[in-house]
Amino acid sequence: MGMKQQPHKTTISIRYSTILTLALLLTSAFLFISPLMHVQEPLLFPSEQTSFSGDLRDANFPWNKLCFGPTFEKLKLAVFSKTWPIGAAPGGMERHASTLYHALAARGHEIHVFTVPSDRRPHSDIHEGNLHVYFAANDHGSVNCSLAFEIFNKIGTDVAFDYVHTESVSLPYWRAKMLPHVAVTWHGIWYEIMHSKLFEELFSNPNGVLPSPTTELQEAMPRLIDEIKFFSSYKQHICISNSAGEVLIDIYQLPQRNVHVILNGVDSTKFVHNPEAGIRFRRRYGIPENASLVMGVAGRLVRDKGHPLLHEAFSLIRKRHPGLCLVVAGSGPWRRRYAELGSSVKVLGALESSQLSEFYNAIDVFVNPTLRPQGLDLTLIEAMHCGKPVLTPNYPSIVGTVVVNEEFGYTFSPNVKSFVEALELVIKDGPKLLNQKGLACKEYALSMFTATKMASAYERFFLCMKNTRYCQYPLPTDC
Is the pTM of this model over 0.90? Predict the structure, then answer.
């Protein structure tokens, strides 16, 4: 009996391996072609507002490019978020949520957020003017969906919510499909995560010495198919990069009118170009005054953020250019590994949000070595606001949305050889040219990546979903 089953298993294995290989080749081809499609996108500064006129649901570009006027209609919004930022450790999604909902509340809208504290510790609910944050945690510190829905239903009893918004799958799809008015913002989709798994495999096992494909890669395609199937449970979809929007339409087969692009924004009053603050920061942390070039990296110091890649590339480049200095801001397992590199590296640990602007101003170029081609990393746009060029992988989500022109920085393929070549270009250009590129970054960031731009776009989106009159652009009140 066992002998009869063996050929059948082999056939299934071969077919599955073939399908997986073809899928990965196709996704790799998409990754290669997509940056070429986007890199020539024309720059758009405040004086060059798009000439779009019509229904916003037909817009095939980020809503941030438009200038929306004031509105006197106020909304009551319910929000489901994975966590709420507490302290210096939170990641980009939590910081995005805090920035967005504080901004919407400041515009007069009633915002109710159902979430848990990012530090997983007990905290009292937050009530600040129009912003209400309810912590509904289970025993493990994650969102207790049943408890969150109890609070949600209680608050929506007297005056119904105009719309429900969820950050990724914070509101599970089986609950979302029971609500009439739901929008979801995707900070990463499995199609992009699959690319992440591919890049991590290629970097950690370049010669194919280890068994391949890995378990995670084997599981990638079934998970992608599952995700595509349940995405339609959400009514409206907001993407934070141009490339993700294209994937949801072309690969996930969602209706174009249900997919919208609104880019992340940061508080442009906190992240500002301030060379004097940078000088003070260098002195405070003992960054060498005679360093030929100061590079900086910030965020969680973990493997999938690309720190093995940066560690190896910097170890090579510093031998050729001993005057380099790498400043590392963040916490995680790779903190100790960086410290082992000696005096050419300054490891600062996690910084408070109030210190991040000073950190960016203290460096010549910001490095983001991530192996995760998904979402829109806030550190890139924070650095750009502070007048710094960026050095980052050439993922579609980045070159199609952030580094849309070589004037803003440098890109590389996620491998050591390409990374080192890009570093050589940065060193060749030197601090003076880097400063010029940084000023161009600042202007572009102010035109696209501000909290005001982001909140204004989300406000108009929710108004449009409530009343189609607001879907027309421009309105008499628009700029």
Answer: no
Residue 380, domain member (yes or no): yes
Distances (CA, A) of 409 to 42, 178, 184, 383: 16, 45, 31, 11
Q: Which of 231, 241, 194 is nearest to 214 (CA)?
A: 194
Strand stretches in 99-250, DSSP E = 110-115, 126-128, 131-135, 163-167, 182-186, 236-239
Does residue 13 lie in a domain region? no
Domain residue limits at 159: 46-264+451-473
CA distance 409 to 392: 8
> Measured between alpha carbons, how far is 163 from 147 in angstroms, rounded to an integer?
19
pLDDT digits (tens, 9 = 90+) for 409-428: 999 999 999 999 999 999 99
Task: Say which residues have a Cβ less than 8 Å from residue 297's Cβ, sequence separation at least 6.
Answer: 307, 310, 326, 327, 328, 329, 330, 366, 367, 368, 369
Q: Which of 169, 114, 113 is nearest to 138 (CA)?
A: 114
pLDDT in tens, 292-319: 999 999 988 999 899 999 999 999 999 9
Residues 251 and 338 both lie in one domain: no
